[in-house]
Amino acid sequence: MIRSGLVAPGIILAAAIVGLGATGVRAQGKLSPKWEELTAADFRMAVQQSKGTCLLPFGILEKHGPHLPLGTDLLNVRYASLEAVRTEYAILFPEYYFGQIFEAKHEPGTVAYSLELQLKLLQETTEEMARNGCKKIVIVNGHGGNEHLLPLFGQAQMDKPHDYIVYVLDGERSRPGGPAKKSTGIDYHAGENETSNTMVSHPDLVHLDRAASESGADQKRVNLPEDVYTGIWWYARFPNHYSGDGSVATKELGEWNMKNWIAAIVEAIRAAKADEQSLKIQNEFYEKSKHPLDTRP
Ligand SMILES: [Zn+2]
Question: Looking at the domain that runs over 31-276, which CATH code has it been given?
Fold first, then answer.
């Protein structure tokens, strides 16, 4: 292992030539998109190939009804993200599941870090990604409980200067069309949609025969106007941490959902790569923020 500068210039030149040769081969799509699978030298090329665009697929560990694995969100978001980067290359950050899940602390297997740690870890993770060349970071959200956390985190980037942009891609989107759904009620968590998706990503982990053993019905135990928020709303309505009916899930619906989700991720990667404006405008904002009294319309 050579760490110092005690290397003959010829060796450095040879190494550089080998490196360049390898770039040509690997640039044709042979680089792994997975951060943890790349060598240090390949990582350098991966940053070039991705134009500094990196995905942070964000999952969680929580109960998913009586029939899906604790890591369903993590497994599904990584499946969709991996498929997406096969179409549009970007570097994929390793497993990340340090999100907001206080509402499932009463269920076995939930891992719920403090809010302070969630924000700090996410900030330090994006800082480290950016320090390594990921100047465009797309957080791909796979967990409904993060829907407030992630926009807040994105907004909080305005507080201090950063030399990178954080984009947040919301959870899976259901687009119009596709196979007709069999369930008619609310389908928020481990229900028909999510169970169908998992039948595509990890069919071996779906225990469909157990899906009807608990109720995922809305128990409507709190009555408040739509525009009044309270943290207990989820537990009040879905105390079994199950919302919907997973027993009617089909692979067909999962394939439709996944196809659309993957397409949305591909679209987000392409948009981030093409975005020349956000970083410039962000820098303009940071600069002006230092002396607000000089700011004129
Ligand atoms: Zn989920």
Answer: 3.40.50.10310
Q: pTM for the full model?
A: 0.89
- Cα(261)–Cα(264) distance, integer angstroms: 5
Question: Would you state the pLDDT for residue 173?
Answer: 61
Task: Give the residue extent of every domain in the chain.
Answer: 31-276
| Count of beta carbons in the 10 Å neighbourhood of residue 274 | 10
Phi/psi of residue 211, nearest 5 degrees? -65, -25
- In angstroms, how far is CA 155 from the centroid of its own chain? 17
pLDDT value at residue 174: 66
Distance 127 CA to ligand 1 centre (A): 27
The three-state (H, E, C) secondary structure of 202-253, written as one string = CHHHCCHHHCCCCCCCCCCCCCCCCCCCCCCHHHHHCCCCCECCHHHCCHHH
Instruction: Look at residue 30 in the predicted model and tell me its pLDDT.
Output: 86
Q: Which position has the token pair 């507080």? A: 159
Q: What is the pLDDT of residues 210-262, one digit of tens each?
A: 999 999 999 999 999 999 999 999 999 999 999 999 999 999 999 999 999 99
Low-confidence stretches of the chain (pLDDT beneath 70)? 1-29, 172-174
**The pLDDT value given to residue 177:** 85
* Distance (Å) from CA 236 to ligand 1 centroid: 18
Q: Can you say whether the dihedral through the CA atoms of 138, 142, 143, 147 is positive or negative?
A: positive
Q: Could you tell me the distance, in angstroms and rounded to a whole number, from the CA of residue 61 to the centre of ligand 1?
A: 9
What is the CA(197)–ligand 1 centre distance, in A? 10
Contact 74, 60 (CB under 8 A): yes
Strand ranges across the sheet with 136-141: 91-92, 53-58, 136-141, 165-169
